[in-house]
Design brief:
The complex is a heterodimer of chains A (about 270) and B (about 350). By secondary structure, chain A is an alpha+beta fold. Chain A folds into two domains: about 110 residues, no CATH class; about 140 residues, Bacterial OB-fold (OB fold (Dihydrolipoamide Acetyltransferase, E2P), Beta Barrel), CATH 2.40.50.200. Chain A is built from nine helices and five strands, in the order αααααααααβββββ. Chain A has a five-stranded antiparallel beta sheet. In chain A, strand 2 and strand 3 form a beta hairpin. In chain A, helix 1 packs parallel to helix 4. The longest helix of chain A is centred in the N-terminal third of the chain and has 25 residues. Chain A is elongated, with a radius of gyration of 26 Å. With about 350 residues, chain B is mainly α. Chain B has 17 helices and no strands. In chain B, helix 3 packs antiparallel against helix 11. The chains are: A alpha+beta (about 270), B mainly alpha (about 350). The interface between A and B is large, with 90 and 93 residues.
Chain lengths: ~270, ~350
């Protein structure tokens, strides 16, 4: 009984995971979990996996007793070696594993895919891992190199990630003057000056959401909490300049000319 | 299809017409039964699709943000590993069912040391990362490799493997000897562990009794239909062993991520010894796949010494939360503890060497 149940449980769990993967891929949500470069490979392998699942279900429907035979075999061997001394603990443990896995599987089947929240940005600390020149760069190309060749207008296309790398490389106000900024991100707290500044941040993904690193640019806005809450997505235009705050250690901040609330973009992460 | 051909051929061979007809009927009944079973499979999968499609697209803040993030992190581990799990099971089926008995075991050199070296290079031919690697290792044990030899494969394949080498090269190039130290270190630790465990007199006692028993079931069938059936059965069995622990491992890894602030690990910083320990703890906790862990650790490269990065890159693919839960399906608890200690010590020593030399 238990063995037969375990067989169905394994098939159910892998079927649910494969179906959820393909469904998220079809609805454009798969990149909430993994980097876009894995999408094709993941979809191909998930399709292969589903064909195997269908074949395995068909086999179990036609030969329902096959697990029980194996069970008998194993039982004999258990007798051979331990005189059937199997204790209660491993059984309890495997029942627990099974209960947790099934609950998580149901959640994967029934709950919507969500973006990592500002709570995780807080926990991982915005800009803590120093993402300087060269970091992440085999994939995207250095922000400094981009900046060196960019025309003035193209700075408006720079992301939060690009600016945050530049801010690490240069704190010279003259470098930033006259360069237009137009960035989108969500609000996370800025511990340097919590009342009058926040980070406009995005998660940057190198492989999957597990390694998501929050990056952000400091935005100076007095008493911002009266207008916005943490986690709100904003599009901010303006320019970088010297920080008016005395308390903060950040010398360059984004001085907003206009701030509008936006909905979370379809591709919330940067890569 | 070949099944039906065989049936027809067997039926037609020197038998009276009526007998041939009745066995033809029997085989068409069989075909019908098989289509029915397949239809049930398709309906089952279709139902899961329907449920997934009809599930709500937003919960409107029903779950707290931390709980949502916990699930998102766990699912990203599962979804990231899933294609490699399928690939690993598929290769394991190939090795167990379709490659002739003992072919691999016989093709390898007889000298035990050379043999282990050859096994640790097998990953170049069978490029799966650590999650797909375990089912493949189970397949190799079932196919006649000794337990200690298969451990060499289990440890070496995620590191000495073209995809991992390529991504590590992309991330670090040849700077500070990180790439070379990783490949050489992974190769060395795999051979060392293989040698240590080969001295264990009772190889089978290293395995859980469940798995040891399932290895002893002889495969009786050799026709291609029997092989197909055996393949789907193996798929179901491997899925039933691996999926629950993959889910639990991913959840635990996500839980630790949500609970322990990353700044705690990072603040351990650039001390040559603590840095190595911190990196090994990080590797243990985050359970990132070896094919991509180089990209993951890249942002930390400027705060940590190169030896700490090397310790991360050798230790992580072999021992982490997800891998330990998965290894538990095959090896005994005591075996896993010994293995982890050896690997941890060796990774730390290699890391220290790199820190002082580089």
């Amino acid at each position: 009984m238990w063995r037969s149940y375990r067989g169905w449980q394994g098939l159910g769990l892998i079927a649910v995971s494969l179906v959820a993967t393909l469904w998220f891929a079809a609805t454009g949500r798969l990149t909430l979990f993994i980097h876009p470069r894995y999408v094709v490979f993941t979809v191909v392998m998930a399709s292969v996996g589903l064909l195997l699942v269908i074949a395995a279900i068909a086999d179990r429907v036609r030969h329902p007793g096959s697990d029980e035979h194996e069970h008998e075999h194993e039982h004999e061997h258990e007798h051979d070696r331990h005189g059937d001394q199997r204790s209660v603990t491993p059984r309890l443990l495997s029942a627990l594993v099974s209960a947790v896995a099934v609950t998580a599987g149901l959640a994967l089947l029934l709950l919507p895919a969500t973006t990592l929240s500002a709570a995780t940005a807080q926990q991982r600390a915005v800009n803590v891992a120093p993402v300087g020149a060269g970091a992440f760069l085999p994939i995207s190309g250095s922000a400094a190199a981009k900046a060196a060749t960019a025309s003035t207008a193209s700075f408006a296309r720079f992301t939060v990630q690009d600016w945050s790398s530049l801010l690490r490389e240069s704190t010279d106000p003259s470098f930033y003057s006259g360069k237009p900024v137009d960035v989108t991100g969500f609000i996370s707290a800025n511990p340097n000056d919590p009342a009058n500044s926040f980070y406009l941040s995005r998660f940057v993904i190198t492989c999957c959401a597990v390694d998501a690193q929050p990056l952000g640019v400091p935005v100076s806005l007095d008493n911002w909490k009266s207008r916005f809450v943490i986690g709100q997505w904003l599009r901010v235009t303006g320019g970088f300049g010297s920080n008016p705050s005395q308390k903060s250690s950040e010398s360059i901040v984004l001085l907003p000319a206009a701030i509008i609330k936006v909905v979370e973009p379809n591709e919330p992460y940067l890569y | 299809m070949s099944f039906q051909l065989e049936q027809d051929r067997a039926a037609g061979k020197g038998k009276p017409l009526s007998a041939a007809r009745s066995s033809l009927e029997a085989s068409s009944r069989l075909t019908r039964k098989r289509s029915w079973a397949l239809a049930i499979g398709v309906i089952g999968v279709g139902t899961i699709f329907a449920v997934r499609a009809l599930s709500p697209t937003s919960l409107g803040g029903l779950l707290p943000a931390v709980a949502q993030d916990l699930l998102t992190l766990a699912y990203s581990v599962i979804i990231e590993s899933l294609p490699f799990v399928v690939l690993g099971i598929a290769l394991s089926i190939l090795v167990q069912v379709w490659i002739p008995d003992r072919f691999i075991a016989r093709a390898l050199p007889k000298n035990l040391i050379l043999r282990r070296i050859a096994i640790s290079l097998l990953g170049v031919l069978l490029p799966v990362c650590e999650c797909g690697n375990l089912p493949l290792t189970r397949g190799l044990i079932a196919k006649g490799l000794t337990v200690s030899e298969s451990m060499t494969f289990l440890l070496a394949a995620p590191i000495v493997n073209p995809i991992t080498i390529l991504t590590t090269y992309q991330a670090f190039g040849f700077s500070n000897g990180i790439l070379v130290a990783r490949i050489a270190g992974g190769f060395f630790v795999a051979n060392l562990v293989g040698w240590l465990f080969s001295r264990h007199p009772q190889q089978e006692n290293l395995l859980t009794s469940d798995f040891a028993a399932s290895c002893r079931i002889p495969d009786a069938h050799h026709t291609s239909t029997a092989r197909l059936r055996q393949s789907t059965r193996l798929f179901a069995r491997e899925a039933s062993v691996i999926m629950p622990v993959l889910f639990v491992g991913a959840l635990v890894a996500a839980l630790v991520q949500v609970a322990v602030p990353r700044s705690v690990l990072v603040s351990l910083g650039s001390n040559p010894l603590y840095g190595i320990l911190a990196m090994m703890i990080l590797a243990f906790v985050i359970s990132v796949c070896s094919n991509v862990d180089a990209f993951f650790i890249l942002p930390f490269a400027s705060t940590f010494l190169p030896g700490s990065i090397v310790a991360f890159l050798i230790f992580g693919p072999i021992v982490d939360i997800k891998m330990l839960t998965m290894m538990r399906t095959t090896f005994r608890g005591s075996t896993i503890v010994q293995l982890s200690v050896v690997v941890a010590l060796v990774s730390a020593i290699i890391g220290l060497l790199v820190n002082y030399v580089a």
